[in-house]
Design goal:
This protein is α/β, with parallel strands linked by helices. It is built from seven helices and nine strands, in the order αββαβαβαβαβαβαββ. The radius of gyration is 18 Å and the shape is globular. The structure holds S-adenosylmethionine.
Length: 197
């Protein structure tokens, strides 16, 4: 009996060798990266663009000294549980514009996961890079859709093209090839390594 239930559950989630991918497979990975940065004293400010139900934000935000959440959906903003957090009910463009040129804030870790269309992903990336602290990391979701059916706007979108065209060529970046993909970009702190890339 027990074995039959076990087989049923297994079959529900696996068809042959194809595993059904979950929308939250990225969370433990981002959490571990954030934990590493926090442990070494390099996680003052965490920013997440696109919160949804807070699956990632509510796990990662408490690790930072201060966390910032941005989403256009009021229900997403309501999901935020962390105390050390400021939330912004607006689109990502307005968030960056609203920071203003005189605001010195820079982020040590930025997770980009808002609008997944190429033009938006590209803008979010450059705006984020400008506000990234030296040695900071940007993590971008959905850079490795399993197949074409996952490139619909409500799934991974076509944002993955930004990685192929620009990012991997011009920045210090690595793409983790598990579905739906995470790309990690570092902003080198050139002050430590003069003459180093
Ligand atoms: C894929 S979900 C985020 C998932 C979340 N990061 C997680 O890991 O659980 C995308 C979210 O981005 C928000 N969003 C879409 N376009 C946006 C934009 N231009 N600016 C801000 N938020 C946006 C949506 O409302 C939605 O909540």
């Amino acid at each position: 009996m027990l074995n039959r239930i076990k087989r049923l559950i297994t079959n529900l989630f696996q068809i042959g060798r194809f595993r059904m991918y979950s929308k939250t497979d990225h969370v433990p990975i981002i959490y571990e990266i954030a934990r590493g940065k926090a442990k070494s004293g390099h996680l003052d400010n965490y920013l997440e663009l696109g919160i949804a139900l807070g699956a990632c934000f509510n796990k990662v935000a408490p690790l930072a000294k201060k966390s910032f959440a941005v989403d256009t959906n009021p229900d997403s903003i309501k999901c935020i549980k962390a105390d050390n957090c400021e939330s912004f009910l607006c689109d990502t463009d307005s968030f960056f514009k609203g920071l203003g040129a005189n605001n010195p804030i820079h982020f040590d870790l930025i997770f980009i996961d808002a609008n997944h269309q190429k033009e938006f992903v590209e803008k979010d990336f450059y705006n984020s890079y400008d506000r990234l602290a030296p040695d900071g990391l940007i993590i971008m979701h959905d850079s490795y859709p399993p197949n074409e059916s996952y490139t619909k706007p409500e799934l991974c979108g076509n944002g993955w093209k930004v990685f192929d065209i620009h990012i991997e060529e011009h920045f210090e970046a690595v793409r983790l090839p598990f579905y739906f993909g995470l790309t990690i970009i570092r902003k080198p702190d050139t002050s430590h390594f003069e003459g180093w890339k």
